[in-house]
Amino acid sequence: MHILFLTDNFPPEANAPASRTHEHCRAWVQAGHQVTVVTCAPNFPKGEVFAGYRNAWRHEETIDGIRVLRVWSYITANEGFARRILDYLSFMATASLAGPFVADVDVVVGTSPQFFTACAACFVGAVKRRPWVFELRDLWPESIRAVGAMRDSWLLRALERLELFLYRSAALIVSVTHSFRGNLTSRGIDAAKVAVVTNGVDIARFSPRPKDEALVRSLGLEGKFVAGYVGTHGMAHALETLLDAAVLLRDTPDVRILLLGDGARKDVLVARARELGVDGNVLFVDSVPKSEVARYWSLLDVSVIHLRRTPLFETVIPSKLFECMGMGIPVLHGVAGESAAIVEREGAGWVFQPEDAGALAALVRRVRADPAMLAACRERCLAAAGRYDRRALALAMLGELEKLVPQQPARTKDPAQ
Q1: In a domain, 205, yes or no
Q2: Rounded mean pLDDT of 244-255?
Q3: CA 299 vs CA 30, 227, 327, 333, 397: distances in Å
Q4: What pLDDT, on the 0 to 100 scale, is given for residue 147?
Q5: Are strands 172-175 and 194-196 parallel, antiparallel or unpaired?
Q6: pTM for the whole thing?
Q7: Which domain, by its residues, includes 47?
Q8: What does the pLDDT read at residue 415?
Q9: Are 228 and 304 in contact (CB under 8 A)?
């Protein structure tokens, strides 16, 4: 089977969509299938093309057996709503032009968060007369409303009509959460064509390791208890809560709050930390290459996962939760809903109310003071990680794709077994 996958994020970018797509496509290639990815020049989140790449009309390379076709797009930093939309639309246009020229395709996949990539997949599928699949990673454009990036308007309502058209036209929708599936079926989408394949962890890359001593020394973290956030610093994440918690923890000098990543709110957060006088116990680190991420995870005694307090985010499952499990890092989880239920069911950490800095600070104090409790939680994280093995989940999604191409033999068994 030849799978054509459209995504505007792919390695060497290291965000969650890029990692999921890469790890799934790699597993499909290892299972004997051909995969072509259409993407753009790597630039997320700073809007700067990575070293060794150009924003060219066409560039081809091979990554882990995956054929990667990079097309031109309008590139901007992950900030400014209008410019981000122009970024999305430009990739939709160039991916729509490039996709039909990929020969002998059996199925077309388009992934969100933003659904203009799915629009391109829908178009390419129609041109090539092949089934197309919507991989649903975010309820967009509802998330625009949730973070306040756009007020209710005729444009937002038009986007929602387009969203429903894409759901109805797709041969299959692969949702990353059960809550998303429930949302779609409540809006009239046929439940039979919505499959759930959650996010997971590449256990080979995210596994327990001691703290990286070189990084500990270079960042001045010797003898410190580190609570850290790793990921995008965006409007959805409300990371001001971590800064407010740092204010409450100033009387605990051995605690450090580490924030690693970039995003639309990064500069604001750095300035806010300075205003609050917590720039001594809050450490900001810029994004690092994908190959280095696990080294920085190793610095953490506990990981903080946080999103704004809004009903929409009760339906999401942050992918970093599974990376924490793989590395045996207990989680302080400031997200309500489906993901909180996973944390509690697996015993992978402790849940607090989103945007409640006092609750977060109290949890940091509690786990810092009880090493035995922290160690027991680490063991539960590692025990749970195997249930979210990315390779097994990739093969589950492959099985769903194979159902759309009945002439292909079923090949969902892991060849390594």
Answers
A1: no
A2: 95
A3: 32, 9, 11, 18, 33
A4: 56
A5: parallel
A6: 0.84
A7: 2-200+389-402
A8: 40
A9: yes
Q: What is the CATH number of the domain that holds 298?
A: 3.40.50.2000
180 and 238 in one domain?
A: no
* 171-216 tens-digit pLDDT: 999 999 999 999 999 999 999 999 999 999 998 889 999 999 999 9
In a shared domain, residues 302 and 381: yes
Do 289 and 364 lie in one domain? The reply is yes
| Total residues belonging to the chain | 417
| Pair (190, 221) in one structural domain | no
- Asked if residue 78 and residue 222 are part of one domain, the reply reads no
